[in-house]
Amino acid sequence: MTADLLVVGGGVAGLVFARRAALAGHRVRLFEAARVFGGQVTRQDVAGVALDAGAESFATRGGDGPGTVLGLLGELGLAGDVVAPAAGSPAWVQERDDRAFPLPAAGLLGIPTVLDDALLPALGEAGLARARQDAVLPPEQGATALTLGELVRARMGDRVVEALVAPVVRGVHSTTPDQLPIDSASPHLRAEFGRTGSLAAAVASIRSTSPAGSQVAGVRGGVFRLVDALVADAAAHGAELTAGARVTAVEDDGVEVDGRRLRGIPVLARAQRAPDPARRITVVTLVVEAPGWRDAPRGTGVLVGPEAGRVRARALTHLTAKWPWVREAMGDREAVRLSYDGSAAPDAAAAAVRDAETLLGAPVDALLDHTVRTWDRSGRAVSDDAALTVGEERAGTGLSAVVRQAEGLATSLTVERASGRCPGERGRMEG
């Protein structure tokens, strides 16, 4: 059988691309080596409750327009199941073993918009005084910054970067503020800073259309439901999706699948590089009896600073505090997930319990169930002359970025087809 498009990889990127291309009338075949689709967006059962094993939320930037996660969920009939995190419970930062404080609720990646005395626990008097200089510094200061860290240091000082921004960037982007390009951190931040001349004012402008907590959302029942809906809708529109099929060779005019040669235009939706141990993340999900956690003593979760020596986790999400649907499913039990750099340790569950007790400030009475999952994350590494490619290596980290790029590439191919050119005729293109 000849197919227009042969998609190699059935994670979210491959599924989004395959669905959009099938809707546009392309013949599509997709092959996933694993027995299930979804990649890092997948289901796990913990203490009898279905939870996300990978991504449990997504960025809502772009609203529900074309190429957004919200728009995609709407097309798939899941708009009514989109949920926001519980209100009134900001995340915290554990800076040192004996020092923790809440993040500013109306900030962006830890950058505050209101520089009042509520920031004293985080910044101290000297740090807060330096941050307040943002309001009076000339607008040229920081205008040529390339990274988020460079911009924040120029406007608000080192303390804001170290205490507030670095833990958030580490938890969200798996990097440091000084390595994160401004446009990757927030596509509108540079323009708003140029317009307002103040970093706090720029963040406030961005957040004015995005109230506290609304920068991220989840799906009632789990983000993994997106995968089930994508598989069903892509198949309904003619895409042929095969799990447990290993692609052993990729050439310009086709692929080899389990010894069979198929002709078509390959679209790569799997990692092209060997796993980088430096980007490996282990996620431990715990379900416990811990009555002291019931009132969410540290909000929806805790980001861990590099000086918190006793804690090995880099972040904790208090699932039963963050998502009302998880609280309903768990009853009196508490559910948390902790993320760690690197591979799972032999004592992963016990270490996670100890870390959770430290971060939430109350003991665990009983560990009821747990899971340990290790993921190899891809960084943006595909050059402009790469073959048709979707996924984190081309799009960057995060469900929002992956969906936008996969949708964009499928749309670009459709435009080429409508113009009379063979899809992929250039052989090298961006999504």
Describe this structure in words.
By secondary structure, the chain is an alpha+beta fold. The protein folds into 3 domains: about 5-40 and about 220-275 and about 380-420, FAD/NAD(P)-binding domain (3-Layer(bba) Sandwich); about 55-65 and about 85-100 and about 210-220 and about 275-375, Alpha-Beta Complex (Polyamine Oxidase, Chain A, domain 2); about 105-205, Orthogonal Bundle (protoporphyrinogen ix oxidase, domain 3). Helices cover about 30% and strands about 20% of the residues. The protein is built from 14 helices and 19 strands. The chain has a 7-stranded mixed sheet with strand order 8-7-16-17-18-15-19, with helices on both faces. InterPro entries: Amino_oxidase (IPR002937), FAD/NAD-bd_sf (IPR036188), Zeta_carotene_desat/Oxidored (IPR050464). It holds the Pfam family Amino_oxidase. It comes from Microbacterium invictum. This is FAD-dependent oxidoreductase.
Radius of gyration (Å): 22 Å
Indicate the CATH topology of the largest domain.
Polyamine Oxidase, Chain A, domain 2
How far the N terminus sits from the C terminus, by CA atoms, comes to 27 Å
Give the helix proportion (percent range): 25-40%
Strand portion, in percent? 15-25%
Proper CATH architecture of the largest domain: Alpha-Beta Complex
Secondary-structure class: alpha+beta
Q: What's the number of domains?
A: 3
Instruction: Calculate the mean pLDDT score and round it.
Output: 89
CATH superfamily of the largest domain: Protoporphyrinogen oxidase, mitochondrial, domain 2
Q: What are the low-pLDDT stretches, counting only 5+ consecutive residues below 50?
A: 424-431
**CATH hierarchy, class of the largest domain:** Alpha Beta
Largest sheet: 7 strands, mixed
Domain Amine oxidase: 12-257
InterPro entries: Amino_oxidase (IPR002937), FAD/NAD-bd_sf (IPR036188), Zeta_carotene_desat/Oxidored (IPR050464)
Protein name: FAD-dependent oxidoreductase
